[in-house]
Amino acid sequence: MTETVAQDFLLVLAITGLGMGIGLFFDCYRLLRRRIKPNYISTQLSDLLFWLICIGPTFYAFYWVIGGSVRFFTILFLPVGMFMYLKFVSPHIREPLYWCFLQIGRGFKLLLRLLIFCVQILVFPFRLAVWAVSFALQFLRGLLRLFILPIRYFCRLLWRKFREWRRKT
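RESULT FIELD:
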């Protein structure tokens, strides 16, 4: 429980700052949705997930700053902080934040390409061995077909002669 005006003022500042932090998190979420463009169901689920994620730090801050007692002005100043951020700070922060997200995405894409390249280097000897075995088996199959070809030709010739002989008799 807060007992002095200074503690109440710090409480108001902390809760307003928490509201501004939720506003910043909402900006990040909004930019992510702008990039991904989800459908209706995934929008509803991601909205639910967003607010569930926001509940945790809010309740922790209420417990840590206030000591667990929730008053009217603490609940009032949370949306006030969010409104202040979205009205005054968000228009100036949104584009640089979007650029930062793009750079982070490009960094992750580069890391993914490096990971794929390293995996390809590690797998290359096995792929080479599979290719060599496949080539050798195809070569042996071709040789076998070449050796069997005269035998097949001779068998067909014999079969034709046998059918002609049966028709005559």
